[in-house]
Amino acid sequence: MTMAMDDIINKVAASGIQTLDPAVFLPAAEDLVVFDLKPFLFRELILKEKDFREALKTHDWAVYQDRTVTICCTADAIIPMWAYMLVTSYLKPVAADILYGSRQDAVRQMTRTAIENMDAEPYRDQRIVLKGCGDQPISEDAYIALMKKLQPVVKSVMFGEPCSTVPVYKQKKG
What we know:
There is one protein chain. The chain has two domains: 5-25 and 118-170, no CATH class; 29-106, no CATH class. Helices cover 29% and strands 21% of the residues. The chain has helices spanning 11-14, 49-58, 81-91, 103-117, 140-150, and strands at residues 17-20, 32-36, 68-72, 97-100, 127-131, 156-161, 164-170. The chain has a four-stranded mixed β-sheet. A three-stranded parallel β-sheet has the order 2-3-4, sandwiched between helices. The longest helix is centred in the middle third of the chain and has 15 residues, at 103-117. The chain is elongated and about 75 Å long. Mean pLDDT is 91; it is low at 9-14.
């Protein structure tokens, strides 16, 4: 018994489920620069105020022009709060944004901000699958932010791929 091509139905496509890939909210790698305090420390351990201030004065700040910069210190050193503030004062005139933390911390912050700023209206009354597999790792807080943003407007949210989903939320009928 043979089946005609017209008899094959793509049930996933016919279901009306929309797939949303959280990776679309990740910042582009070139948009983020790390400013590490470690090279500015004496023996990469101690912050000497006079030397630190002089190094910042002569640093090329143009490399941060219109980019998001995250300030961190990869050395196991005690950094006074004013040092972060001083670096920020130099970055403020050139950087698009300034964050604190590792590259991973900054990606998480930027992703969360992009999700919070997204327009949820195109998803109103839709059945959504939040993609669970991809080339780039997506943090748990991105999925949490997506749930917070989508839950008030969608019919349902599932996790995974359209062909294999885990139900997460279903709107209660009024």
